[in-house]
Amino acid sequence: MTVFDDTHHEGFLARGYLRLGKVGGPEELAGLQRRIDDLMLGRIRYPNMRMQLFEAGTGKLRRTLGNEAATLSYRRIDDLEQDPLFLAYMQQPFFQRICRRYVGEAVSVFRAMFMNKPARWEQTLPWHQDVGAGWGIDRNPIVTVWTALDEATAANGAMEIVPGSHVHGVINERHFLTPEEETRYAPPGKVEALEAEAGEAVLLHNLLLHRSGTNPTDRPRRAFSATYMEAETRTLDTGMTFPVVFGPGALDPATVCGKRAELVEKFYG
What we know:
- By secondary structure, this protein is of the alpha+beta class.
- Helices cover 19% and strands 26% of the residues.
- It is built from five helices and 13 strands.
């Protein structure tokens, strides 16, 4: 897709998601795959990049600031807008056209996040919406672009969604649904697996209910998501704004050089 017209808009509002196809080319995908491995293995380092390490000895997840170990078992990496390759991908003109419709001309990124289900990963991610009071910002984002870095299938824990569930608004301000809410809003008959080829991008409404399962296969399932929002969005505690990706003062892949320490002192989201 290179055009986002009224038909796409109507489909997105009806279902809460829209398949965008392979927005980047195969070389760009290969570059992002290599870069995320380089970040996990410590070959490229950013001191103010928040990561989530899976400790094989304890089976626990632990947040780190910067790379602490050379391993492909990092579960999550945030703050990827400070990396020129990921920033350039986020700033593609097609994504900017989508943001103009739903956000405006001045757009910041709430989170630019890598999510990983390593091989033989036994943990699930429960039903939730990507909004809520716990995020600590003065307004909820609306749109996220999720991109499969590897093929996502039902066999390796692909995302599951409830199409149209965004129309319910914020179901639980604490992010995850209660068992009673799951029964009401995510009955099995309404659930769909969002399978995707490597490189395929999907536009997601932040209110869309989603979850993901285990990955019992021998290969990881990796994905990258960027949540776009109004540049005026501020944190509730400090009034801080977020890095701008479209509009005046936007980050530039040619000059971006890390992230300010004060932007990672507290975790929002």
